[in-house]
Amino acid sequence: MRKKPHGLQWLETVGQRKQLSEKERWDLQRLQKGVLGEEQMDKMAETFLSGKITAIDDITLQYQSSIVQIDKILLIGSIVYIIDMKFYQGDYTLQDGSWQRNGKKLPTNILEQLRRAVRIIENILKEQGIQLQVKGVLAFLDPESNIQIKDDIAETILTFNKIPLWLTKLNQQSSDERYPHWKSILFQYQINDFRTKYKLTHAEAEQLQKGICCPRCHQFQTTPKRHTVHCSCGYVEAKATAYVRTICEYGVIFHDQDLKLKDLKNFFGKNVQETYLKYILKKYFTVIQKSTKRSIGHRNEGILFEYWFENKMDYFNNLEKRKNWKNANF
Prior knowledge:
Elements: H1 6-15, H2 22-48, E1 54-63, E2 66-76, E3 79-86, E4 91-95, E5 98-101, E6 104-105, H3 112-127, E7 133-140, E8 146-149, E9 156-158, H4 163-170, H5 182-187, H6 202-206, E10 222-224, E11 228-231, E12 236-238, H7 239-253, H8 261-268, H9 274-284, E13 287-289, E14 295-298, H10 305-308, H11 313-322
Helix pairs in contact: 1-2, 2-4
């Protein structure tokens, strides 16, 4: 499952509970467009690629002291394609080793992240004795952008309208099944995604809307019952799901802090049921203990509910199916 970047998780979650600054709103729109572009690329790959294709989406790797985030990896034939996706707007030109945007030189090289990713993958595969060629692909996903490449470079540069034809041509490559374990090899170097640098000041934290946010209408007119949480819009959610989801929202916003009962009680607001909150923390979240075995809080993964509990979503989906049972016990 392709996950939203952590900065986007933070901005969307905070934006439900307080007004974002102008810069935060701009960052939110930029990141949302980037995710939409990545999803478009995924759909095009599914549509235009046929045969035995192996893909890895959205992975962060560490090799020795180097860390790189890669948007998409494709193994087609005997070639590993490293795809870096950019949702850049405007006119871009690469000439004499320098990028320009709308006629002005950029301070950084757009290709550098891709080239670093290619070097890291090459080194990993070489160490493991895997003889696959590695190629870099830079894909511009904004249909309105104009890209001119005037230098001879090793990478493939794709504008949005050229992506389908490029993917279709890849189908002509014969399959290479010598290294079926190449994917598991890369996963050995996988690390957690980067966390955002966004943080709230104390004053900003005080502005947050407290309570359980309805996942359908995104308002806070919610009332806890015995086994369910009811919103004024008519939406009903299993109480366990609502509490776990809201704890995860707290974790995203305060990603640099552990989960502590006192802070969570404040976050849930006046309708919080403390005994039930303690029960949920004990059942679903990992406790952090001092050497004296005294609990000092619970571990904060700092990510959204659907990512934090990715391996337990069947369980929570079953809770939602049972929420209307008269004698439901969860």
